[in-house]
């Protein structure tokens, strides 16, 4: 019998009843307990990081690679790299 709530007197020490973890959302190869207190093994496999395109071939879909610290003004290129814009243009809009 699985246990999903542990109380000592009137104090709740452990309460899994509100947990939302499921086999489908838990990373494959990891174990946890669901809201019913049952031990489950994860089945979720995250997508790969995408690969960029080249002149010879298309890229593949997937997660975007994270930028490094200090790259907040860079943009993600189609080849999968982070790059700084070559030039920035300021446009003034005037009302007459």
Terminal residue distance = 78 Å
Summing up helix and strand content along with how strands pair, one would put the structural category as mainly beta
Count of DSSP-assigned helices: 0
Strand residues, percent: 15-25%
Mean pLDDT: 88
Globally, the shape reads: elongated
Low-confidence stretches: none
Give me the count of strands.
6
Helix residue percentage: under 10%
What are the salient characteristics of this protein?
96 residues, mainly beta, two-stranded antiparallel ribbon
Architecture overview:
By secondary structure, the protein is mostly beta strands. Helices cover 0% and strands 20% of the residues. It has no helices and 6 strands. The chain has strands spanning 5-8, 11-15, 31-33, 39-41, 75-76, 82-83. The strands form 3 sheets. The protein has a two-stranded antiparallel sheet with strand order 1-2. A two-stranded antiparallel sheet has the order 3-4. Strands 5-6 form a two-stranded antiparallel sheet. It starts with a strand and ends in a 13-residue tail after the last strand.
Short description:
The chain has 96 residues and is mostly beta strands.
Write the layout of secondary structure elements.
Blueprint: E1 5-8, E2 11-15, E3 31-33, E4 39-41, E5 75-76, E6 82-83
